[in-house]
Amino acid sequence: MPASAKGLKENFNWFALLVTAALMTIGVLNLSNADFYSGANQHKVQLIWMIVGTVIAVVLSQIDHIIHEKLAWIAYVLCAVALIAVSVWGEERNNSRRWFVLAGVGLQPSEFIKLATILIVARFFSQARVSERYTLRQLWQPGLLVAIPFLVILKQPDLGTALLVGFVGVSMALYEGLQTRSLLLALGIILFVIPVSWKYVILPGQKDRVLAWLNPQVLKMDKRNPRRYDRTIQPRMAKWAVGSGRFFGKGSRKGTQTRLKYLPEIHNDFSLAVFAEEHGFAGCTLLLGLFYILVIWIFRVSAYAKTKFGAQLAFGVGAMIFWQVTINIGMVTGLLPVVGLPLPFMSYGGSSLLTTMLGLGMVWNVSLQR
Amino acid sequence: MIDLINPTSSSGRVEYKTSYRWVLIVVTIFFLILFYRFFWLQVIKGKEFQTLATISYIGHYELPAPRGQVTDRNGVKLAVNDFRYAMVVYPRRFYRHGGRQRFEDVAKLMQWNEQQRIEFEDKILRALKSNRRRPVELLRDIPSEKVDLLKAELFRFPGLFLNTQPMRLYPLKALASHLLGYVNHVNAKDLELFPGIYGAYDQIGRTGLERRFESLLRGEKGEELFIKTAGGRRVSQAEVGAILPKLESKPSVPGRSLGLTIDVRVQTIVERAFGGSWRRSGAGVVIEAKTGKVIALYSKPDFDPNHWAGRMSKDLFERYSTNKYSPMLDKALRGFAPGSVYKIVTAIAGLSEGVITPETKIHCSGVYEFAKRPFRCHHRAGHGDMNLIDAMKVSCDVFFYRVAEQLGMDKLAKYGRLFGFGQKTGFDLDESQGRVPTMAWYESRGNWQPGFTLSTGVGQADVLVSPLQVAIAYAALANGGTVYRPYIVEQIRDPKGDLIKLVHPHPRWALPFRSEYMKLVRESLVRVVNDEHGSAYIARLDGLIYAGKTGTAEAKERRSGSDDKRFKQWLLQDHAWFVGYAPADDPEIVVVALLEHGGSGGREASPIVQRIIRDYFNLKNGQHVYLPVQLKKESKKKKKKPGRTEKKTTTKRKKVNQTPLAPLP
């Protein structure tokens, strides 16, 4: 049994590598198609990021992840300082301060802090001395560590990334195990926080997107404010683009909705819609399958990890990718409100890609140390 | 169990393996949801979304069909197509960024006053509020100097466009306005009534020929399909490559054009013959005696159809609506009391029924006692002994009272109907059928008096005839007994100019009278004009013998709502009629003139017909048409014929000469 299990694991590792490569290829090709439609040249930049990311991932995979446990604090503090700094002095794009520009390269600390948070939370769980399942009180430390980036990112404002940090944090706690009473209490707190934050925290633009998702007719009426109206158009146009792809799609570079610019944000949050329109249900099934395999592999690595830190680290990375995929696809297909979150490998963005690659490099190392 | 001492202990694995199973389930469920969502969107609802997407990028552009032209018998254009500019705003694009300021800029450029500003801005805001994507039309018929200004500044105002809109132009203005009618833009009601036929900027015929032949004139609008981007920009097929299906556009079909039997020169002659401000209201008809073709149809006062086709100012509208003499009514097709013009019916009836012979003499003492009531002749002193020819010549009433009395009401009515009175002539335009009263009609009304028979015999009481009916009846008498259908539309041509339909003269029936009776009546009508005792002797012509009949119909009436003394007095006067045909021996044209409340037929109406006949034959013989100078003022509004651009430089007289005098058919 151990031998065969080991064999499977070994094979699965290489298979996962193949899947990652396939996702990266699809991502770049899809971006080049988006470039074709829009006349931009972003897929080349993405390719460079991909090469850089791969190199770093390979290097990381050879470094014992135990070192990360020791460096977790440094990474976290560095990222947190950068995040706070960027939220104050960063460059404003699309009404949000997220970017640092270093030597012409835009960096997004909010992406990197996702990984740093995973590291620090994993370190907490691996070093905690708790015999039973956790109560909420025992979780004040990781809770605080998650809350800091969550609130700062929320203030940028970047609802999608903030929620993602929260989701990953909560997932990791659940993975570790909570006492039933604490679980219920946590649920109660969340139910209390949602309406309160709706009133005081959520910005009007973000509210509009949620409203548009709940009932598209609500905002349609308000044509006096075209900006608000556009928020209903985005998800609708995405649905039309995805749906009109039908089973086999319209063919590469033959997407009408994208070509005629009915589809918004084709390089970023809605890059999947470009793919869905061109390759239809068949293509989407393939892509979904690839993500599924990748995510399952990561969780499996976590389950079979040698160290507790490794297990939590791998799980965190897996949760990060899983939530990003789920929320982004849900958003593009109209299942969820548009919160703004990139799809790993598919959306353009160096920081996002680098974060994913760094995470995968670490997971790879965990998988090697069995 | 978690090993508390050694965090890197492998004993944690068991714990995570349990969690792992849960994670696996959760992840699989989430991915299945996503998978099903793709399936629902792309496979189950795929076709629906494809349709929605296709609709979203295909734009429609209406191709309006040019309206058919209307020409007279010599090809002179009476109604053509012109265009005007309209200001159109796409509210969302116009108001997107800094719309308010942009609106102010436009308002300043166009020099709108405060009221207009409020009105137009309200229009835009209302369109923004509603869910429609349709452009909003702010202003129609922009003056050309403002168009130039706007065109130069248009780049500053995204979302604002100048649309060209078809607009009917009647180059001869008020000439022949009643028969042409007018068009104006379709309104919401029309769009609802004829779904899919009219575009938002189309025109629709409202009166006259424009309305009657609307379905032929309007043509068929087409539609151009094009591909548009989300921003609304048109994209050429080449630009998007082969990714989209080729779109088929439907070209528009221009309307058919009408060729009329009208001769604008004769129409002008008629119009001028009716000149003079003392002639307040009336109608003139000129038809071909042997075909029923209408050469001229005139109603006074007239109107300029250009005003009604979208160039109407408030001031003008006020002037039209306060005009008491019904400028919009075509009086040539409305019924009036005929007076002595109706006497041919009584004469023919009397002869045919054997009540009188050509030699029968009846004494006129100036009054005819009947049912203890005196029926007076217009000549109070009495005409003495008269036979038919004499009675007709001087229009003796007593003679016809007597004949009518012996005929009785229903026989009179029978002959009246035989002449075409009391029924529609079958003309191309809406007409009233007039009235030939019968016993039955009076019984149904319950106000019969025996004296009505006598009055009917001289065209009074309840007889109503339209000038066109009179023309057709006299044409029948003159041409030997054929009652023709009068018509005005002779040719219908397709857009290429090929003849689709040629309308031929349509004899409806022959008068079943003995020809010597008709000859006798014709002889009497010649005397009316040419005998020195004839009632229209003043209207005779040198070198042309023509026949005619005067009519002076009592038509006192009251109209409510007017305190104008002059107008009230006018209403008390008689209708003045004269109908003539020329030449008397071989009639070519029949001319009818009616002056509503114009006075005596012999004094007032006959000179009009005289002038028309004289000018008509002068024109035909290539001579200059003499037009009195005092008509100049009157004709200011009604410019004539194709030479209208030369108006400023030439004198009245010269202008007439320069009219292209095509030989008459």
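Residues 1-13, 627-665 of chain B have pLDDT under 50 and may be disordered.
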